[in-house]
Amino acid sequence: MALTEQKPADLVVRPVAWGLVVGMLNVAAPVAIWWLDLATVHALAITLIAAVYVGFAVADGRPKVIAVETAVVLLFLLIAATAVTGSAWLLVIGYFGHGCKDLWQHRTQFVTGTRWWPPFCAAVDGVVAGSITVLILTGVQFH
């Protein structure tokens, strides 16, 4: 089915399904990058995830959008950098906060041309925020 023939639900259901899969891979990423602690791996991931919107903003081309998305990335970078040596709850805040930003983006289309990305990314963020919460509550050490 061509993109123009897709049902509106397909523009949300498929990205969310893939987001759940990628979210689980994100949760498992520290196993593959064993030489870094959990907090560092997830801090890097939060920053990478947030930075994708800068690419979308550049493609959008409006200076205001580029400036706002760059400022948002800097906020998530600050949260992530603090989480490297601070509380692991900052990782939950970072992923949860970014998921909320994704939902806002999906609703408003502030950055044009993102169509499937916000629901995909919100699913990734939700899986990781929830998983980190469970890990913290079960006593897993992030540093």
Q: What is the count of DSSP helices, taking H or I runs of 4+ residues? A: 5
Radius of gyration: 16 Å
State the distance separating the first and last CA atoms: 47 Å
Class by alpha and beta content: mainly alpha
Strand elements, count: 0
What is the molecular shape? Answer: globular
What is the total domain count? 1
**Element-by-element helix/strand order:** HHHHH
How would you portray this structure in words?
It is a single chain. The chain has 5 helices and no strands. It is mainly α and 143 residues long. It has one domain. Helix 1 crosses helix 5. It is globular, with a radius of gyration of 16 Å. The mean pLDDT is 93.
Brief rundown of the structure:
The chain has about 140 residues and is mainly alpha-helical. It has helices spanning about 10-30, 40-60, 65-85, 90-110, 115-135.
What is the secondary structure topology, with strand pairs?
Blueprint: H1 10-32, H2 38-60, H3 63-85, H4 89-108, H5 117-137
